[in-house]
Amino acid sequence: MTRLALALAVALAIAVMNAPAAQADPFCTEDGPPPGSASKPFDGGALWISPDGLIGVTTAVGNGRVRVTGASPMPLQAMVIDAQADGQRQLIVSTGRVAHLFALVGCKIDTVYDTQGQPFLFDLENLRGNGTGIGCSDLGDGRHLVGLQALPDGNGYTVRRTEIDLGGSTATIGRSDTVAGTSTADPVVTSAMTISCGEQTMTQDGVQQP
Hints:
45% strand; mainly beta; globular; 17 strands
C-alpha cells in the first residue's frame, strides 16, 4: 500500500470513529414499508425510506431494514448499485454529510466494515478532509466503487479518486489517482461532489426520505 493510500485509510478510520453507527436488522421479515414511504424499484426488488428514516429493501424472499441516525438536518437518501458490475449489490445511504455502505445479500442488509473492523463511511463534505463524493470508475483493473475528493488547486480543481475494493462485507482501500477539472461546471468536478455509479445518480435513481 502506498503512503498516500495508508494515510487515507487512517483518515477514513478516524472519520468512522467519530460518526454514529447504523443499526441493521439481521433478519428478513414479512413487514413491508411503513405507510407514506418513498420507494424506487431495482432489479430484484424495491428500495424504500419511511418518513421517520427507516430504510429497507423488499424482495421476493422478504424485507430487510436498517436505521441510520445522524445529526444532519438533511433528509436521508439511498440508492442500490452494483459497484463492481459482478452481480453483487450494495446499498449507499447518505445523510448529506457522510454516506454509509451496506452489502445486500438477498433481503438482508449487511454493514460493510473497513479493515479495522469499523463500519465503512464516506465523507461527503470534506469535513474530515478525505472526500466530497462517491462514484464508480475503472482505475486499471475493472470498475470499482471510488471515493472522490475535489479540491481547488489554484488553476482549477484536482479530483482524487480512491478505489474501494469490496469483498462481501469488507471494504479495503485500493489504488488512487488524480484527474484535473477546470471549474465547478466541469463534469469531472460536478460528479466528484455527488453520489453516482455509472449512469445511476442519487438524484435520479435514489430514494429520498419523505
